[in-house]
Amino acid sequence: LKEKSLHEISHADHLKKLDAVRVNILGKKGPLTEILRGMKDIPKADRPKVGELSNRVRDNITEAIEKRRSELEKAITEKKLADEEIDVTLPGKPVSQGQPHVIQQIIDNIEDLFLGMGYQVIQGPEVETDKYNFEMLNLPKDHPARDMQDTFYITDEILMRSQTSPVQARTMEKHDFSKGPLKMISPGVVYRRDTDDATHSHQFHQVEGLVIDKHITMGDLKGTLETLAKELFGDRFEVRLRPSYFPFTEPSVEADVTCFNCMGKGCSVCKHTGWIEVLGAGMVHPNVLKMAGVDPEVYGGFAFGLGPDRFAMLRYGVDDIRNFYLNDVRFLTQFSKKG
Ligand code: FA5
């Protein structure tokens, strides 16, 4: 019996089979239990011998089963590990990486340039009050120039800012001029009830710039704008300043850049003018300084507000501003920082 059992145990090739063998030999109906049950029919004198022998056989078999069980379990674990093995020498799957939006790339570029010239970068709220968006910028209620920027109103007093210029007023108010001049830029999103077309969006970006100090001149403004144009467009495009009107600057100018699409010849993108307007600027109006608590007899400065969306169109030859807002990844990945 022992030999037969040990043979069956060593040939059990998986755990279920081993268990069946165990039940067959050691179970209630197994041969060993049968022998022990039949003890009463054996002569008394032989009983201890038979008992001892059958116990030994049972111990041997139990031991063999346990040994075989751990062998089988070990084999299972080894197979599992072999299946899960990772070949670290295989080439990895390429992971597609995200990147800043092309307009954010232009804004980052502008920030780097101005930080290098000692400007601070300041953020302002997109939900603004009428006071900062208009009144503090020399645009009292019912001023006709308010129509220049058709505005989304939330209540009579609260609106979606139509320009980044309110950040000028907020910053001037807080600035301590005894500690030095004020030089800041403020990038952000603005909103207007403009009808969307190739160069207009109802939601777009602006970067405001402001410098207040003693003895600032129009020459400082011109030099700053030329540095900016060179940084962003290189020497490929011409920049022209033309007289304009903003209630918060006097005198005021607008800067145009050669239309990238027709290089000045005239096309539908530039409405046949040969130029694309990219920014408004001027010398800060004395009323604006006064309202912010700055003495216009002592201090003066320049301000500008540029449209990075238009800058991106010019730099990359994109003929419709709406492409920036459709968020088609095939369009956006063309402007990878690496490429
Ligand atoms: C202003 O918003 C003034 N706050 C700029 C300014 C600041 C002047 C400081 C003087 C001193 P304007 O409405 O022209 O000006 O807009 C400025 C720039 O924003 C434009 O030159 C253009 O580049 C961009 N822009 C204006 N409207 C849109 C639009 N609907 N979609 C895309 N870009 C626009």
UniProtKB/TrEMBL annotation:
Chief place of localization: cytoplasm
Subcellular location: Cytoplasm
Assigned keywords, A-Z: Aminoacyl-tRNA synthetase, ATP-binding, Coiled coil, Cytoplasm, Ligase, Magnesium, Metal-binding, Nucleotide-binding, Protein biosynthesis
GO molecular function: ATP binding; catalytic activity, acting on a protein; magnesium ion binding; phenylalanine-tRNA ligase activity; transferase activity; tRNA binding
Short name of any one Pfam family annotated for the protein: tRNA-synt_2d
Signal sequence annotation: none
Primary enzyme class: ligase
InterPro entries cross-referenced by the UniProt entry: aa-tRNA-synth_II, aa-tRNA-synth_II/BPL/LPL, Phe-tRNA-synth_IIc_asu, Phe-tRNA_ligase_II_N, Phe_tRNA_ligase_alpha1_bac, Phenylalanyl-tRNA_Synthase, tRNA-bd_arm
An example Gene Ontology CC term for this record: cytoplasm
Residue span(s) of domain Aminoacyl-transfer RNA synthetases class-II family profile: 102-334
Protein residues bound to Mg(2+): E250
Source organism superkingdom: Bacteria
Cofactor(s) listed in the protein's UniProt record: Mg(2+)
Coiled-coil regions listed in the entry: 58-85
Record's cofactor remark: Binds 2 magnesium ions per tetramer.
EC number: 6.1.1.20
Gene Ontology biological-process entries: phenylalanyl-tRNA aminoacylation
Catalytic reaction equation(s): tRNA(Phe) + L-phenylalanine + ATP = L-phenylalanyl-tRNA(Phe) + AMP + diphosphate + H(+)
HAMAP family, per database record: Phe_tRNA_synth_alpha1 (MF_00281)
Family: Belongs to the class-II aminoacyl-tRNA synthetase family. Phe-tRNA synthetase alpha subunit type 1 subfamily.
PANTHER family per record: PHENYLALANINE--TRNA LIGASE, MITOCHONDRIAL, PHENYLALANYL-TRNA SYNTHETASE
Complex and partners: Tetramer of two alpha and two beta subunits.
NCBIfam families: pheS
Protein name as it appears in the record: Phenylalanine--tRNA ligase alpha subunit
Taxonomic source organism: Pediococcus cellicola
